[in-house]
Amino acid sequence: MRFVGKFAAALLLIGLFIAAGFWALGYYVSGKLKGPDPVTIASASLQGLREQNRLSAFAARFVAVSTSTQSQFGLSTRKTLIMPGMVNYEVDLAKLQQKDVTWDAGTHTLGVTLPPIEVSQPQIDLTQMREYGDGGILSTFTDADAKLQEANRRAGQQELVRQAHEPVPINLARDATRRAVERSFAMPLTAAGMDVTVKVRFADEPKDNSEIWDTTRSLDQVLKNRK
Hints:
Elements: H1 2-33, H2 38-51, E1 54-72, E2 75-92, E3 101-104, E4 109-114, E5 118-119, E6 123-124, E7 130-133, H3 137-141, H4 144-164, H5 167-191, E8 197-202, E9 217-218, H6 219-226
Parallel strand pairs: 4-8
Antiparallel strand pairs: 1-2, 2-5, 2-6, 2-7, 3-4, 3-9
Helix pairs in contact: 2-5
C-alpha cells in the first residue's frame, strides 16, 4: 500500500508537470497568435519619422504685384514689379515625442499630435520677375530707378509672406502633411494585419471635446506601465 501511495504521488507530480507544460505552451502560442503589438510598431514608426528631421509635404507658388512712385524736382516716375515666389510648408519631426502619440485599445485608434506648420521664406524666381515703368527724365538723371526697385522688392517680399500665411494655403499644407503622417503610421500597422485608425492633428489646432485625445494614453505611458 505504501508503494502504491508513492506511485500515485509520483503520477500526480508528473501530471502537474505535464499540465504546467501545456499551460506554458498555450500561453506562448496565444501570444504568438495575437500578432505583433501595435504600440511597439507605432513606437518604431515614430522613431523613423523623427530621424527624417523635417517633413515638407506641401509647397505653393505665389505672385506679388507692387507699385512704387518717386517724386523729385516736380517730376515723378513709377514702376511696377511682378515677383513670383515659392514657399515650402514644413514640420519639424525631430520635436515629436512619445507623449505626442496616443493609443486607444478600445477603438484601435492611434492619435498623433504634430508640431505647428512652419512657413519658409519665399524663394524668389528671378527668371520670372517682370518690371514695368514710365521711365522719363527723373529715371535718366537720378537714382529714382534704384530706389523704386528696392521699394518694390521689399513690398513684394512682404506680400508673398502675407499670402503664404493666409488660411487657405495653411489648411492645404496641414491636410497634405496630415495625410503623409497618417500613411507613415498606418502602412506598417496594416502590413502587420491590423485594422487601425490613425488620426493626426496639429498642436496649434483647436481640440474638439469629442476627439480621442481626451481619453487615450500616450505611448510613453503605455510603455512605462509595461516595465
